[in-house]
Write a structure and sequence with these properties.
By secondary structure, the chain is mainly alpha-helical. The chain has three domains: 45 residues; 94 residues, Tyrosine recombinase, N-terminal domain (DNA polymerase, domain 1); 193 residues, hpI Integrase, Chain A. It is built from 15 helices and eight strands. A three-stranded antiparallel sheet has the order 1-2-3, with helices on one face. A three-stranded antiparallel sheet has the order 4-5-8, with no helix packed on it. Strands 6-7 form a two-stranded antiparallel sheet. 30% of the residues are buried.
Length: 386
């Protein structure tokens, strides 16, 4: 028998009755496969031959998706992406992807496995945004595997995302906002709610605000006398790690927002509160000089805001499915109701595209009524009927 060339393989049965195959590779190396039956080994050998023909390295049969994802998270995501992104992806892998399809060998992950994962996510009644994030995490990981020539293609791209009707975010009406602020009157978060409603800040941006210091202008902050605030950072809290202030997610997130009178009044009250905190503080005041902080000048955790926010909603008789982010949605809706141009709303909210801004604009009853009045004014025959 002549010498086999690279990419050719042989199947044989060893002395213990186990079926095996060997595949010659470049550089004199060989790849060995094994299985219970000849058919099993033939299938593995055919798959390996296809990989060789495509110029792909042969991923070991024991390299599972779970093992690959663990390395991808630590070596690619953790050093190259934001802490928040790493936590979201790691959570997606630990809680959902791993339990569902993590034991599948990386080289054998296919559309059927992606479909299985999505079906299990839907069965858990997860929100569509959460499902999309989990799908995005898996897709990003497998796209990297394609770049590294570990797999031929990304199977996530071959599976349609689940078609679930997305729940429309609910803004507060001005009357509801008034009721909320009344329920929060005297609480330390009263001013926080007011500022978010009046500026459209994200909760992380509001909690990362500092009092403006001309010597650190690049860090932004609140300028009370100038009646404006500069968003240059946001609060990032990672479990079991020190909190930190990080730049906004996008270039458009760096922005200057004018302060309307109610926001100025709220921030003046908050300034008085923080000065009182400083006078009573038994330790050195943190150099960050945050606008919204606890009695020791430390940042406020977003989850605590969410918990107290739910309590205030209940006290105000408002739907408890609303979240602090609803304050931002409300600001966008109110600006739309006042016919503020979309490009201006984009600048206020710090969006990078009009598509994103459109998601923050909602139709209020007063807007519909106003449209009806305008339609009646031009409707044929309306003048004669008046």
């Amino acid at each position: 028998m002549g010498k086999r060339g690279n990419g050719e393989g042989s199947i044989y049965q060893d002395g213990r009755g186990v079926w095996r195959a060997s595949l010659s590779l470049e550089g004199g190396n060989r790849k060995y496969l094994s299985g219970r039956t000849r058919a099993d080994v033939a299938r593995k050998l055919a798959s390996a031959l296809r990989d060789v023909q495509h110029g792909l390295p042969l991923a070991g049969e024991r390299l599972t998706l779970q093992a690959y994802l663990a390395g991808w998270l630590e070596n690619t995501v953790k050093p190259g992406r934001r802490d928040g992104t790493y936590l979201l992806y790691a959570s997606a892998v630990r809680l959902h992807i791993g339990p569902a399809i993590g034991k599948v060998p990386l080289a054998r992950v296919g559309p059927q496995h992606v479909q299985k994962l999505q079906a299990e996510l839907l069965a858990k009644n997860l929100g569509i945004k959460r499902i999309r994030l989990i799908r995005a995490a898996l897709s990003a990981a497998l796209a990297q595997a394609v770049k590294w020539n570990l797999i031929v293609r990304n199977p996530v791209t071959l599976v349609d995302p689940p078609h679930v009707e997305e729940r429309e975010p609910r803004p507060l009406t001005p009357a509801q906002a008034t009721a909320l602020l009344a329920a929060a009157r005297g609480h330390e978060f009263e001013q926080l709610y007011t500022v978010m409603l009046a500026t459209g800040l994200r909760i992380s941006e509001a909690l990362g605000l500092r009092w403006f210091n001309p010597e650190q202008a690049d860090l932004g902050g609140v300028e009370l006398e100038a009646k404006r605030l500069h968003v240059r950072q946001q609060l990032t809290i990672v479990p079991r790690q020190p909190w930190k202030l990080t730049p906004p997610k996008s270039r458009n997130g760096r922005r200057t927002v004018p302060l309307i009178p109610v926001a100025v009044a709220a921030l003046q009250a908050q300034r008085t509160r923080t000065l009182e905190y400083r006078l009573r503080c038994p330790v050195d005041w943190p150099p960050e000089d945050l606008v919204f902080c606890d009695e020791l000048g430390r940042p406020i955790v977003g989850r605590r805001v969410e918990r107290i926010f739910k309590r205030h909603l209940k006290e105000a008789g408002l739907p408890t499915e609303l979240t602090p982010h609803s304050l931002r949605h409300s600001c966008g809706t109110w600006l739309t109701a006042q016919r503020v141009p979309d490009r201006v709303i984009m600048a206020v909210l710090g969006h990078s595209s009009p598509v994103m801004t459109a998601r923050y604009q909602h139709v209020m009853e007063t807007m519909v009524e106003d449209a009806a009045v305008q339609l009646a004014a031009i409707f044929p025959g309306s003048a004669a009927a008046i």
